[in-house]
Amino acid sequence: MYPPRTSQLLLALSAILPSSLAAFACNDILTKGQHFNFEKLGGPRVVHWTDSLGTEDMEARWNFTLDVCNKLQRDKGVDKQNWCHDGARVCGVRALHDIYGDENDTISAVDIAGTYTMQNGPNAILDPTFGLLRDLKSNSDAPREGVRVELHGGRHPFDSKKEGVKQRAVIDFVCDREREGDEGAEKDTNEHEEEPKKDEDEKKGENGDKKEEKKLRRRGGEKGKCEDTEASLRFCGYEDEKTDKDDKVKTLRLEWRTKYACEDAPAPDGGKSWGFFTWFIIILFLATAAYLIFGSWLNYNRYGARGWDLLPHGDAIRDIPYMVKDLGRKVVNVVQSPGSRGGYSAV
Ligand SMILES: *[C@@H]1O[C@H](CO)[C@@H](O)[C@H](O)[C@H]1NC(C)=O
Ligand SMILES: *[C@@H]1O[C@H](CO)[C@@H](O)[C@H](O)[C@H]1NC(C)=O
């Protein structure tokens, strides 16, 4: 038996590397030769939507939470059944609210997109797809710069494969050189954390809330238009849509204005492209070391080798200095030869 080949070792090592290459790496979105890095947009972000449901006395208050870089974590104090399943990237939580009554809201969570590893098999994966906004034919407006990201894997109800309505999230990251991408979001998230009992405090702020909701509702009425707010991340719709493949997919549409969607965006921290290369060198070094150590150990144990013979391919390694010297001599020859043949150096 021979010591394992380097290639085999590399293969084995690559299996334990972070599998981010296959998954959706928010810092490395590549489509049509364009590269986007949305690392700075990571972390949970929330958008709200109030759906009037076409009734007078009931409305659905939605919170859509997404994290483009990681799976979502359930906030402390949120009931498990009021939150999406483990692995969700985009989660919709609906509070069915009785406008005039005092009844508690009925809460339900909708898994919109994510990679769910538990029970649901190969269909419940994020399976992200990307497209440049300027390539999208259906865009009637002036061409926009940026990238559209489509995330899949969700279904509602989640646990019944047959009856669950497929869900997806379509996020347009639109180039806006003035925006970092978190404008209008920070205040929002703070509120969530500091006032988790807002339901109880609701009466205080009721008038303001109502007014805002009415505004939102009016905006929601215009189809295909995004919510009219200064926030960088905006809600644009949550409706049944038909796709080529599926009959019906409930689609959450969001728009995210940010400078990171510009095609000439500088990398958030310049050295990022070193990442892969550095890893590669480290792995190569480790693999070589492991190969030499393991090979030596084998040679020692099996063949009782000592000294140079310990090293796998000991002869070859011993020859390296001579080969280098030889090569060096050749290079020197080549470099010197034009001069020595007197082509140009004559005085
Ligand atoms: C509403 O929720 C509170 C707190 O969870 C609970 O004590 C109360 O019984 C609920 N009221 C109704 C009508 O379900
Ligand atoms: C949605 O977000 C608002 C504001 O942060 C919060 O008060 C409310 O409880 C949330 N609703 C649900 C159903 O989680």
Question: What would your notes on this structure say?
Answer:
Pfam families: ATG27. Residues 1-22 form the signal peptide. Keywords: Autophagy, Cytoplasmic vesicle, Disulfide bond, Golgi apparatus, Membrane, Mitochondrion, Protein transport, Signal, Transmembrane, Transmembrane helix, Transport. Residues 176-223 are annotated as: Disordered. Belongs to the ATG27 family. The chain has 347 residues and is of the alpha+beta class. It folds into 2 domains: 13-190 and 199-261, no CATH class; 276-335. The protein has helices spanning 6-15, 186-194, 198-201, 206-221, 274-303, 314-340; strands at residues 29-31, 34-36, 45-51, 58-66, 88-98, 106-114, 129-132, 146-156, 165-175, 233-241, 249-258. Strands 3, 4, 5, 6, 7, 8, 9, 10 and 11 form a 9-stranded mixed β-sheet that branches. Strands 1-2 form a two-stranded antiparallel ribbon. Helix 1 crosses helix 5 (274-303). The model is unreliable at 13-22 and 186-223 (pLDDT under 50). It binds 2-acetamido-2-deoxy-beta-D-glucopyranose (2 copies). The site of one 2-acetamido-2-deoxy-beta-D-glucopyranose (NAG) has 2 residues, from loops.
